[in-house]
């Protein structure tokens, strides 16, 4: 009899040991990522010291490089999620594949098309005359970098995707006010930036909802879904490739060659026609033997989503690396030359710090925000994720045409919200959907919205609606970004000003 009791007791003890080992592993893992981030920041400081040893202001440059590396890590942790989140949330690619694609294309965009000249005063926010003293300018830029990085770090920890551009804008504004007073700020420029808080997410949401409405009408709620997909999916792929070609011509390669909007549109139109010709036989071949159900349609949108994630990451690396290395390059130039310039050349080692930091930040800390954007705001499938990706590119093109300063973060997240809120409205109000449901017996796995209607009212509501808690927290983070970064930057400027005297 005693033997019959020893085995369960031993099993329980072993289970406790296994649980303790698992907990220890998780605890150790939680220290690994910050440790790797600190190692990267230290290496950036060492590399900068190697390049600037013997130069005037070497100590300031090394300190700035350390801060720039920290900023780049935070950009990768927060901002890149918008490019790959929808594709991951729709299960078009795994998280690991998304991280690899984003890291490679972010780095490529930064190094190939990131530009070698940037404006030292971000977006003309501060009058250059007001900060013409080199020491004042260096303190201003360092305060802006630190405040923006700290704010993005906090937002990432809270799970809120925020605009890195707006964070830098707020940092420059706050330090500028502390340095030269309120009159030094270009308030019309700040007004246009504030207007973009509303315009860019709203526009992104409207465009994404419009494309989703078309897909539902032309493909999903047709009696023969596969035949409709053969006709319209090549057109949708052509629209996406043409749009991205225009987007890359305007934004992705702007540092290499300046392309007028009309020329970029012609390039996009040519690419769209070519991709339509190529996509027709490919989609026809992929659709052979597919069942007449929504699950089959998802397979046709998987590859376009992978390409869109890669292209968005490339364009983001080309554009947003300046948020990390622009102020750093300005500090390096000012410390070495001893004067403030309106535009400066970015040294290769500075660009490498930005590119490597963004990619490493994505790999170490990006999954949290990727999951937030991909599946915690609203449920995405490949069709909805396609609408989000296409909306992001189209909105940037429209904003460039209108001359509006917009945030890619606000656009992408606004598109996710637009898709979610449109689904709510469409489910309750669409007569086409109601007629289709009445004509067909829909399998639970084929139409998730209809399946949810058969459940309890509270369960139906939870599945259908956008998560309001995430909606409110993200909107609040957007509104607070500029003033929070400005206040923190102003305080830091005062401290740094005295330290650099």
UniProtKB/TrEMBL annotation:
Membrane-spanning segments: 31-52, 58-80, 92-115, 135-156, 193-220, 232-250, 256-279, 300-318, 346-365, 385-404, 471-500
The keyword Membrane is assigned to this record: yes
The entry's localization annotation reads: Membrane
Q: Which residues form a coiled coil?
A: none
Membrane topology for this entry?
Answer: Multi-pass membrane protein
Keywords annotated in UniProt: Membrane, Phosphate transport, Transmembrane, Transmembrane helix, Transport
Whether Transmembrane helix counts among this entry's keywords is: yes
Q: By its UniProt entry, which PANTHER family does this protein fall under? A: PHOSPHATE TRANSPORTER (PTHR11101:SF80)
Family according to the record: Belongs to the inorganic phosphate transporter (PiT) (TC 2.A.20) family.
Q: What is this protein called?
A: Phosphate transporter
């Amino acid at each position: 009899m005693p033997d019959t009791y020893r085995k369960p007791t031993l099993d329980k003890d072993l289970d406790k040991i296994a649980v303790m080992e698992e907990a220890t592993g998780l605890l150790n893992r939680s220290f690994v990522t910050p440790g790797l981030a600190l190692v990267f920041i230290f290496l950036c400081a060492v590399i900068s010291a190697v390049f600037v040893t013997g130069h005037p202001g070497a100590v300031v440059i090394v300190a700035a490089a350390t801060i720039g590396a920290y900023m780049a890590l935070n950009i990768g942790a927060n901002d890149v999620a918008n490019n790959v989140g929808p594709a991951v949330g729709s299960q078009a690619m795994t998280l690991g594949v998304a991280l690899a694609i984003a890291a490679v294309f972010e780095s490529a965009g930064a190094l190939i098309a990131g530009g070698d000249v940037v404006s030292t005063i971000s977006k003309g926010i501060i009058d250059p005359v007001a900060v013409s003293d080199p020491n004042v300018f260096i303190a201003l830029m360092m305060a802006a970098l630190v405040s923006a990085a700290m704010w993005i770090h906090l937002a990432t920890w809270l799970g809120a995707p925020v605009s890195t551009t707006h964070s830098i804008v707020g940092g420059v504004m706050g330090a500028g006010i502390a340095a030269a007073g309120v009159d030094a700020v270009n308030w019309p420029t700040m007004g246009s930036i504030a207007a973009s808080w509303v315009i860019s997410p709203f526009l992104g949401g409207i465009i994404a909802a419009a494309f989703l409405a078309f897909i539902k009408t032309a493909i999903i709620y047709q009696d023969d879904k596969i035949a409709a997909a053969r006709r319209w999916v090549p057109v949708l792929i052509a629209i996406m490739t043409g749009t991205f070609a225009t987007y890359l011509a305007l934004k992705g390669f702007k540092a290499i060659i300046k392309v007028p909007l009309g020329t970029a549109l012609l390039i996009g139109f040519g690419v769209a026609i070519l991709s339509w010709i190529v996509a027709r036989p490919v989609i026809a071949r992929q659709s052979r033997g597919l069942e007449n159900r929504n699950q089959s349609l998802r397979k046709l949108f998987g590859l376009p989503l992978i390409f869109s994630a890669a292209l968005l990451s490339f364009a983001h690396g080309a554009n947003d690396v300046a948020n990390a290395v622009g102020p750093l390059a300005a500090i390096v130039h000012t410390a070495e030359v001893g004067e403030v310039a309106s535009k400066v050349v970015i040294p290769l080692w500075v660009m490498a710090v930005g590119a490597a930091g963004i990619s490493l930040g994505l790999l170490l800390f990006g999954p949290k925000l990727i999951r937030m954007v991909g599946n915690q705001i609203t449920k995405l499938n490949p069709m909805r994720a396609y609408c989000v990706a296409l909306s992001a590119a189209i909105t940037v093109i429209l904003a460039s045409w209108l001359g509006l300063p917009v945030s890619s973060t606000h656009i992408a997240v606004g598109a996710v919200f637009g898709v979610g809120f449109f689904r709510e409205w469409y489910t309750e109000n669409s007569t086409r959907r109601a007629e289709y449901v009445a004509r067909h017996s829909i399998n639970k796995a084929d139409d998730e919205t209809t399946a949810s209607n058969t459940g309890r009212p509270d369960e139906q509501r939870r599945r259908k609606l956008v998560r309001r808690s995430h909606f409110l927290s993200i909107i609040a983070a957007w509104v607070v970004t500029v003033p929070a970064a400005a206040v923190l930057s102003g305080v830091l400027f005062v401290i740094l000003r005295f330290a650099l005297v």
